[in-house]
From TrEMBL:
It comes from the Bacteria. Residues 136-312 form the AprE-like long alpha-helical hairpin domain. It is found in: Cell inner membrane. SUPFAM superfamilies: HlyD-like secretion proteins (SSF111369). It comes from Rhizobium leguminosarum. GO terms for biological process: protein transport. Gene3D superfamilies: 2.40.30.170. Residues 289-316 form a coiled coil. InterPro entries: Beta-barrel_AprE (IPR058982), HH_AprE-like (IPR058781), MFP (IPR050739), T1SS_HlyD (IPR010129). Residues 359-457 form the AprE-like beta-barrel domain. One of its GO terms (cellular component) is plasma membrane. Residues 1-38 are annotated as: Disordered. This is Membrane fusion protein (MFP) family protein.
């Protein structure tokens, strides 16, 4: 600044009693001599650099420094007391609570028709494909014939034991007609045998009655002859009768007693024969029924087994028509055409159930699994619907696997000595899937990829800056 531009008052010297102190204490007991400001008369002739150096800092600069310092202090304070959610990022996809439905043939067969296409919506019971039924139908027909024959025998024996006429309830099938003929023959044999026994029993009964009658007559004759003999014996004792007459009466009595003994023997024999024939008749009835019941038990077992086999064969025949077990969407079809041979249990149609609850199946890194627990809240971002526009879904952790998994691709691409990164699987139960969509309808489908943020706790902002420093300090100075 030139001398002619300064004010006169600026050229006056500063009094010594008002001059600032030129000494300042130092850290070691010494006093640091501060350079006093130059008098205006001298400063007038100094350079501009010296003048700027001697001038006090501007108020704006001081305020800026104070504001920056206060801002830094406020930021550190805010970072120390403020906390944010700590989340674990887990990618995955939407899956149904029910697994995919794989429709397979029960046995090796030939494809006759394919009724659906990939992506088609099918309903419960709808036909998906039809296989050749020649062999299974032949087995069913053969087993049905066996069952019908056994059933006809069982019903015929049941009618015999119940005393019913099977010919009146038999149908017109060959097996039933044959059993009706057999029923007639067996009934005729049964009746004939009973009639034979009845005739023999009647004969023995008549012989027994005749013997009893003859025995009564002989008893009367014996009594009469005994009296005659006694009278002639008295006459002989009185010498009024002859000995010859007495002996003749005695001989006649003995003849009658002999005949009486023979008649009694024949009566006993007739009684025994009557009892034997009666027992034989009853034994024949019991044996006939016992044999029928034993045969009935055996045939019932065979019929029940045949019925079960028939059910299995009928099911096997019905399985040639592959149907949808539930409302679903056709996900995939086997690479087979009509006329191709499909093996037993080979997947033919793969279905994805619809109208069933969805879950998110996510992969959790092994280093994060220690902070994830069942019941933790989660936020699901769907890749098909950007969360910036449509928002997010909410849910909670339902299950966590008890061991790690490796994807098939990881196992194939893993290099020797460098294993693939394992991960845990978790299922996220979707609680609220309402998205902020007004322009397009939101439809959640199995297979949609998602990114899940699982809330595992809170953390201060400053910890994000301190933890790396602490980790570095903990890992430092370890060299031997």
């Amino acid at each position: 600044m030139n001398a002619h531009t300064r004010k006169p008052s600026e050229n006056l010297p500063v009094p010594s009693d008002k001059a600032p102190s030129d000494k300042a204490p130092t850290g070691k007991g010494r006093e640091l001599t501060a350079r006093p400001p130059l008098p205006p008369a001298i400063a007038e002739f100094q350079s501009d650099a010296v003048e700027l150096e001697e001038r006090a800092p501007p108020r704006v600069a001081r305020m800026t420094l104070y504001c920056v310092t206060a801002l830094i202090a406020s930021a550190i304070t805010w970072a120390s007391v403020s906390s944010i959610d700590e989340v674990v990022i887990a990618p995955g996809k939407l899956v149904t609570t029910q697994p995919t439905i794989v429709v397979q043939p029960l046995e090796t067969s030939i494809i006759r028709t394919i009724e659906v296409k990939a992506g088609e919506v099918v309903h419960t019971g709808q036909t998906l494909a039809t296989l050749d039924a020649t062999f299974s139908q032949a087995d069913v027909d053969q087993q049905q014939a066996k069952f019908s024959a056994l059933d006809a025998q069982v019903r015929r024996i049941e009618a015999e034991l119940a005393g019913d006429d099977y010919t009146k309830i038999a149908g017109d099938t060959p097996d039933q007609m044959l059993q009706a003929q057999l029923f007639g023959q067996r009934r005729a044999f049964y009746v004939a045998q009973l009639q034979n026994f009845d005739q023999q029993i009647a004969g023995q009964s008549a012989a027994l009655v005749a013997s009893k009658n003859q025995e009564a007559v002989l008893n009367d004759r014996r009594d009469g002859l005994s009296q005659i003999e006694a009278a002639r014996e008295r006459l002989y004792d009185n010498q009024s009768g002859s000995l010859i007459t007495l002996l003749g009466s005695r001989d006649a009595r003995l003849d009658v007693e002999s005949d009486l003994t023979a008649v009694r023997g024949r009566a006993d024999e007739a009684a025994h024969s009557y009892a034997k024939l009666t027992a034989d008749r009853q034994a024949f009835i019991e044996d006939f029924r016992r044999a029928a019941m034993e045969q009935l038990v055996e045939l019932r077992g065979q019929r029940d087994m045949a019925d079960e086999e028939l059910k299995k064969m009928a099911l096997r025949r019905n399985m040639v028509v592959l149907t949808a077990p539930a409302d679903s969407v056709v996900l995939d079809l086997a690479q087979r055409s009509v006329g191709s041979v499909v093996r037993e249990a080979e997947p033919v149609v793969t279905l994805v159930p619809i109208n069933v609850p969805l879950e998110a199946e996510v992969s959790i890194n092994t280093r994060d699994i220690g902070r994830v627990a069942v019941g933790k809240e989660a936020r699901i971002k769907l890749d098909a619907y950007p969360f910036q526009k449509y928002g997010t879904a909410t849910g909670e952790v339902r299950t966590i696997s008890q061991d790690t998994f490796l994807t098939g691709q990881q196992e194939q691409t893993a290099t020797p000595g460098q294993p693939a990164a394992p991960f845990f699987k978790a299922r996220i139960l979707l609680a609220d899937t309402r998205l902020n969509a007004t322009d397009v309808p939101v439809r959640l489908l199995p297979g949609m990829t998602v990114t899940t943020e699982i809330k595992v706790g809170n953390r201060t902002v400053i910890s994000y800056f301190l933890y790396p420093l602490l980790r570095g300090l903990d890992n430092a100075i370890r060299e031997p």
